[in-house]
């Protein structure tokens, strides 16, 4: 795509849509390389009333920005968007708000005040992720976002991050509930890769994985990243009601994976009310679990 100095995609509404397609659905796609001193605003967009996919497969992407914009003096804002009341079924998936253009440089990038609420998949087993952020520039913040009331029978993640140097702070993630069986995984925040990750002052509660046997439910899950700083988070009501847990776990913070020379610093977090109410396994509830090798 050709470089454009200024972009403003703001105030758009998607009103009471019901679609019957198995093809990929993208609400907003913005894959333009921002030049030096470029400005990109994607703010105040929303679903009005509801969005329903009646077809039983296909992905839904709310926003995608995957082309490197991290050049000097670039400013990017993804603020105050509200994509709520989404209904899917079958194996349909939601990849959520995707800002993964982890280029090089020193862009200022802020994703703040967005709301993702009331997503329902019923007995659908497709993976649901609310936000996916990979940002290389250290001048970034994914903050003050609200992710709430997401239910399905598949894997659910509030915020996931891989490549880059992300600061994920002051977000509220609550009521992610899956009835998925066996190896289903529920994570409030997942760090799967990257260089420096700061995860702080988030409030994460009422995460439930109620039919797992070998799966897990975790407030924060770290499986990658070279330098991870996990501090001042409040994590509570992490729950599994499954009576069939064998090697599955309920975790406040889980550190796993096999990253060589990884440094993970965990301090001043508040973790409480972790429950495996029907489990008979040896050690199903762990406040901070370190299993990486």
Strand content: over 45%
Topology as H/E string? EEEEEEEEEEEEEEEEEEEEEEEEEEE
Which overall shape is indicated by the principal axes computed on the Cα atoms? globular
Number of helices: 0
Strand pairing plus helix content: what structural class?
mainly beta
Fraction in helix: under 10%
Order of strands in the sheet with the most strands?
1-4-7-10-13-16-19-22-25
* Mean of residue pLDDT values: 93
Describe this structure in words.
There is one protein chain. By secondary structure, the protein is mainly β. It contains no helices and 27 strands. Strands 1-4-7-10-13-16-19-22-25 form a nine-stranded parallel beta sheet, with no helix packed on it. The radius of gyration is 19 Å and the shape is globular.
Structure summarized in a few sentences:
The protein has 293 residues and is an all-beta fold.
Write out key terms for the chains shown.
293 residues; mainly beta; 9-stranded parallel β-sheet; 0% helix; 55% strand; globular
């Amino acid at each position: 795509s050709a470089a454009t100095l200024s972009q403003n995609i703001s105030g758009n509404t998607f009103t009471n849509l019901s679609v019957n397609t198995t093809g990929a659905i993208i609400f907003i796609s913005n894959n333009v390389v921002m030049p030096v001193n470029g400005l990109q605003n994607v703010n105040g967009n929303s679903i009005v009333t509801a969005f329903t996919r009646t077809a039983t497969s296909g992905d839904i992407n709310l926003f995608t920005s995957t082309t490197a914009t991290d050049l000097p003096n670039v400013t990017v804002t993804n603020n105050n968007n509200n994509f709520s009341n989404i209904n899917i079924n079958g194996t349909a998936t939601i990849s959520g708000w995707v800002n993964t253009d982890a280029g090089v440089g020193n862009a200022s990038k802020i994703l703040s005040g967005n709301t993702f609420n009331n997503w329902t998949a019923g007995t659908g087993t497709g993976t649901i992720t609310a936000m996916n952020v990979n940002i290389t520039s250290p001048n970034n913040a994914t903050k003050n976002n609200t992710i709430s009331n997401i239910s399905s029978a598949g894997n659910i993640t509030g915020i996931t991050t891989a490549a880059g140097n992300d600061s994920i702070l002051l977000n509220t993630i609550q009521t992610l509930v899956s009835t998925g069986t066996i190896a289903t995984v529920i994570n409030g925040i997942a760090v799967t890769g990257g260089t420096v990750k700061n995860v702080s002052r988030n409030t994460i509660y009422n995460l439930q994985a109620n039919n797992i046997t070998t799966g897990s439910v975790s407030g924060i899950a770290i499986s990658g990243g070279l330098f991870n700083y996990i501090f001042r988070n409040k994590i509570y009501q992490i729950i599994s009601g499954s009576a069939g847990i064998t090697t599955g776990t309920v975790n406040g913070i889980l550190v796993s994976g096999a990253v060589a020379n990884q440094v993970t610093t965990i301090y001043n977090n508040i973790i409480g009310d972790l429950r495996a109410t029907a489990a008979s396994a040896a050690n199903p509830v762990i406040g901070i679990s370190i299993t990486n090798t």
